[in-house]
């Protein structure tokens, strides 16, 4: 795990993210314990609690077919949860050079490249 | 009437597989299919599976899995290009990205589809082997191999020999770090030989057989280094033995305790060039040379598996081309920048720019891939090459067909006349895709391409290599750019450093010098514009950008880059 992914302030909040094993797509842990495809459906946790959450998620990783679980520090903004680093903002939103490739892009939809 | 079997023609430009190669690929796909099934069942952990998928070119990147497909020495045929188009359409998002190692990457691959994709590739005699992991990676070669008027020796046969030698080599499958080899057969170094772990320049020896100039310990990345010349005249028959000796010394003494110090360049620096040379020679002398000898007969047997173009007399092709150039100025400009002199009279090589103004360097759609395959079949003996500058070459086009080729390219977004100019940008995928990147390479490339996209302005500026990397790993070769841009992370935000004065080619290979502190994306674009203005105002008649940089040093350009707005 890249250490950059786990940089967190003591007072902040974070969400939990992973990649799905089958297709590699990014997912976020929701309040209901299910994994969501958009960050706005993620449940934020206090950074003081995030390591425990990550530990529980890692214990279920194989069962839930997930890889690369880690916490992403976020802030609450008017448009919702926003990662604090540019890397995680891009990861959450999709590649900036293809605005059409949003996180909820259908998995098997044939694309029409611009 | 008896049935007559006709031997299928050999593919022009690349090695023709036989049943042994095809059986090997089938077995490899079956092996990976089993590994994927075991991973999905939980029999393999991610930690156990990761090196196995990487050996098959499958990375887990920022948004999804990325599959890197090998294009050995950058050469493929039309059917193979159509296979890549099919993969882009069926399993990805309708495009692919040509890389600086002459490969192609697909950014949106599903793990569960990968065995099927590898099967499709194998049916076209393709694979993803040696595109990742700490092994000898895809050997790169001159994009004009077998075509260039200035070529002394065709390097592809030797690139293929190196491929066969290195694929699954039991000693070199788990090297301290990845290992990159490039080979050229021209005095004009078009492969950046001095920036490779091993760079080879082939030429004809006194006995009529090839000899090789051997450079070792070059590279970019965190510790850029220009390779050291170990041999000037390595005989063909010793090529494998000598490279084996270099790899053995590296394998024995290369650092495995620190990934940042694991490349062979660090070992060469640590030992010193003379001691490294002595150790290689000691290994070389102790080897069973008969076992490792590369006989002429083997070289010729490999050469015989390459199809060669059956050139028709070109007649008045050159005259027709001249007339067409006079009649169409835009076409004339494209011919001037995007064609390269061919050894066969009446023919030339065409470099198809994959860098449209404001576009994403190296990206091509499936439709464009199909078009390139069609054009290759119709005009270039069915053969294509991918360049380490992320463009595509049609190697052998009759000069009187250029106008039709250009029109077809231009109608499909591939007709940009910018080869060698400022918008012929090398850019890695950057933070838009890459899990290692610190900053996005593509948006800044697009901004610079749009800003300097005017054909007149580019002609005025003249030859200029602009390379962009999203992190210090330097996949975008920023150190070797006349102007380089390096993406860095400043407390979680993207920023960019500018380097100046790098060059990849031949005797004047140099490493770009960092101008100063990192800036935002827009500040960097403006700074580069001021650097260009400085060049235009201070150059002497006929002086190229890199020459002005070397004459003046970095100071005036630094002043311009950091001038208050």
How do the helices and strands line up, and which of them pair or pack?
The complex is a heterodimer of chains A (114) and B (565).
Chain A: E1 13-20, E2 26-29, E3 35-36, E4 45-46, H1 47-59, E5 66-77, E6 80-83, H2 86-93
Antiparallel strand pairs in A: 1-2, 1-4, 1-5, 2-3, 5-6
Chain B: H1 19-41, H2 46-54, E1 58-60, E2 65-69, E3 75-77, H3 78-91, E4 95-98, E5 104-109, H4 114-123, E6 140-141, H5 156-166, E7 181-184, E8 198-204, E9 210-216, E10 228-235, H6 239-253, H7 264-271, H8 273-286, H9 289-292, H10 296-303, H11 317-327, H12 329-338, E11 339-341, E12 347-352, E13 363-365, H13 366-379, E14 383-386, E15 392-398, H14 402-410, E16 426-427, H15 442-451, H16 455-461, E17 466-469, E18 483-490, E19 493-500, E20 513-514, H17 521-538, H18 545-552, H19 555-561
Parallel strand pairs in B: 6-7, 7-8, 16-17, 17-18
Antiparallel strand pairs in B: 1-2, 2-5, 3-14, 4-5, 4-13, 8-9, 9-10, 11-12, 12-15, 14-15, 18-19, 19-20
Helix pairs in contact in B: 1-2, 1-4, 3-13, 6-8, 7-8, 11-12, 17-19
Side-by-side strand order of the widest sheet of chain B: 1-2-5-4-13
CATH architectural grouping of the largest domain in chain B: 2-Layer Sandwich
Under the CATH scheme, which class of the largest domain in chain B? Answer: Alpha Beta
Contiguous low-pLDDT stretches of chain A (5 residues minimum) are 110-114
Report the strand count of chain A. 6
Note the total helix count of chain B.
19
Task: Round the mean pLDDT of chain B to the nearest integer and report it.
Answer: 96
Q: What Rg of chain A, in angstroms, do the CA atoms define?
A: 14 Å
Largest interface: A-B, 33 and 41 residues
Helix share of residues of chain A? 10-25%
| Helix vs. strand class of chain B | alpha+beta
Number of helices of chain A: 2
Q: Which descriptor suits the 3D outline of chain A?
A: globular
Structural class of chain A: alpha+beta
């Amino acid at each position: 795990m890249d250490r950059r992914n786990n940089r967190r302030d003591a007072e902040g909040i974070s969400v939990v993210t992973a990649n799905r094993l089958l297709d590699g797509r990014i997912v976020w842990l929701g309040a209901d314990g299910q994994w969501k495809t958009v960050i706005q459906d993620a449940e934020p946790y206090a950074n003081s609690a995030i390591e425990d959450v990550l530990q529980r998620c890692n214990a279920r990783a194989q069962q839930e077919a997930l890889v690369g679980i880690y916490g992403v520090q976020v802030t609450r903004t008017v448009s919702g949860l926003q990662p604090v680093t540019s890397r995680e903002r891009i990861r959450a939103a999709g590649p900036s050079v293809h605005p059409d490739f949003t996180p909820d892009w259908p998995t098997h939809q044939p694309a029409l490249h611009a | 009437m008896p049935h007559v079997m006709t031997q299928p023609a050999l593919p022009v430009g690349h090695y023709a597989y036989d049943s042994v190669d095809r059986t090997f690929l089938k077995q490899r796909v079956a092996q990976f299919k089993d590994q994927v099934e075991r991973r999905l069942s939980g029999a393999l952990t991610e930690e156990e599976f990761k090196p196995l998928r990487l050996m098959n070119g499958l990375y887990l990147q920022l948004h999804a899995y990325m599959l890197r497909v090998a294009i050995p020495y950058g050469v493929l045929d039309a059917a193979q290009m159509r296979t890549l188009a099919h993969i882009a359409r069926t399993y990805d998002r309708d495009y692919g990205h040509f890389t600086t190692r002459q490969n192609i990457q697909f950014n949106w691959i599903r793990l569960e589809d990968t065995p099927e994709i590898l099967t499709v590739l194998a049916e076209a005699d393709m694979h993803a082997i040696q595109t990742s992991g700490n092994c000898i990676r895809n050997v790169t070669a001159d994009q004009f191999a077998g075509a260039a008027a200035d070529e002394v020796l065709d390097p592809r046969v030797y690139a293929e020999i190196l491929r066969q030698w290195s694929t699954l080599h039991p000693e070199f499958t788990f090297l301290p770090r990845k290992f990159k080899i490039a080979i050229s057969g021209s005095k004009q170094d078009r492969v950046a030989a001095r920036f490779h772990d091993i760079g080879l320049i082939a030429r004809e020896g006194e006995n009529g057989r090839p000899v090789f100039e051997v450079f070792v310990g070059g590279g970019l990345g965190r510790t850029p280094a220009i390779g050291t010349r170990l041999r000037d005249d390595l005989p063909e028959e010793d090529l494998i033995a000598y490279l084996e000796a270099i790899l053995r010394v590296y394998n024995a003494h290369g650092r495995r305790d620190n990934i940042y110090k694991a490349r062979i360049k660090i070992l060469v620096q640590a030992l010193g060039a003379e001691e490294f040379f002595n150790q290689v020679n000691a290994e070389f002398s102790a080897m069973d040379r008969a076992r490792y000898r590369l006989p002429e007969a083997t070289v010729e047997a490999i050469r015989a598996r390459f199809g060669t173009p059956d050139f028709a007399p070109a007649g008045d092709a050159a005259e027709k081309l001249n007339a067409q150039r006079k009649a169409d100025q835009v076409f004339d400009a494209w011919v001037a920048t995007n064609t390269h002199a061919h050894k066969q009279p009446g023919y030339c090589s065409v470099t198809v720019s994959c860098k449209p103004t404001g576009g994403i360097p190296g990206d091509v759609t499936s439709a464009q891939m199909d078009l390139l395959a069609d054009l290759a079949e119709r005009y270039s003996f069915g053969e294509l090459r991918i360049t380490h500058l992320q463009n595509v070459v049609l190697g052998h086009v009759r000069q009187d067909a250029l106008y039709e080729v250009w029109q077809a390219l231009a109608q499909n977004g591939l007709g940009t006349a910018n080869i060698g100019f400022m918008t012929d940008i090398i850019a890695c995928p950057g933070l838009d895709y890459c899990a290692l990147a610190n900053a996005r390479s593509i948006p800044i490339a697009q901004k610079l391409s749009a800003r300097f996209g005017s054909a007149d302005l580019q002609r005025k500026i003249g030859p200029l290599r602009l390379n962009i990397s999203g992190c210090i790993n330097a996949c975008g070769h920023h150190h070797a750019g006349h102007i380089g841009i390096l993406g860095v992370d400043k407390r979680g935000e993207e920023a960019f450093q500018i380097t100046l004065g790098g060059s990849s080619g031949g005797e004047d290979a140099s490493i770009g010098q960092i101008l100063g502190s990192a800036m935002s994306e827009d500040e960097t674009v403006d700074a580069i514009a001021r650097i260009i203005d400085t060049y235009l105002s201070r150059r002497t008649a006929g002086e190229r950008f890199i020459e002005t940089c070397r004459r003046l040093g970095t100071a005036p350009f630094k002043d311009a880059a950091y001038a208050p707005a």
